[in-house]
Amino acid sequence: MDKTIDGVRLAFDDEGSGDVLVLLHGFLLDRTIWQPQATALARHCRVIRLDLRGSGASECGPGPALMETLAGDVFGLLDALAVERAIIVGHSLGAYVALAFFRMYAERVAGLALVSGHVGADDMAQRAGRDAAIAAIEARGIGVAAAAYAPALDALTAEDRARIAAITERQCADGAIAQLIGMKERVGSEDLLEDIGVPALIIAGSDDPQLDFAALEVTAAAIADCELVRVPGAGRLVMRDAPAVTTDALARLVTRCARASADPQSGRAARV
Length: 272
Prior knowledge:
By secondary structure, the chain is of the alpha/beta class. It has a single domain, classed as 3-Layer(aba) Sandwich (Rossmann fold), CATH 3.40.50. The chain contains 10 helices and 9 strands. The chain has helices at residues 35-41, 67-80, 93-105, 124-140, 142-149, 158-169, 173-185, 213-222, 238-241, 243-262, and strands at residues 2-5, 8-15, 20-24, 46-50, 86-91, 109-115, 200-205, 226-231, 270-271. It has a 9-stranded mixed β-sheet, sandwiched between helices. α1 crosses α10, α4 crosses α5 and α4 packs antiparallel against α7. It is globular.
């Protein structure tokens, strides 16, 4: 399915019924990365997956893909689908979009999950790395970015590595560049944490080289009702490295959000 939001055609899937769970993918990926979770969770709730602008089957649109722009796309799609409130789940880049969505539309957020994501802005070295990646893609095409992503697939089976590699290789170079600019320019979200009054989830692999788990513990502790899940042996693609663990954590989040909606005083902080 697709809808045009703010002049940009966005591709999405909409399955199941009930409370709404929105799944946002990471950089160089698309909505198909969430297939195992979508299939399982759509039996219990309504699952909406979209290709962020510049990814998958969605159009790029003009200018950089700022996190606020991407969050606005999600808002527009939910409005078009008559969804008042949703649990927003983001992986990597999608986690930045989820945080931007909360900053802009907190009243529309029933729950929040960061999957292999963190709240900080890029430091100078990371910004320089984004610039180098942009230059490489401009000079040699999307294949160079896909090759750089390969180490993130080490924990996967050979079949899954081939499947995810195919996803990264089919992404649009212009879209990847627009998203790299957006990630480089994003603001930190540390100031939001005490304002997150809905059930939250942070899930990350123990072998993700891009994350500092001690920092994630600090983040989780700053949120009133946050479950923190550390997945042993999993890497960047925790939803593929440990699909059942990821699905179960998201299912618990859906249950917690339903309970909080029925009884706002029922939420309690949790740690795993």
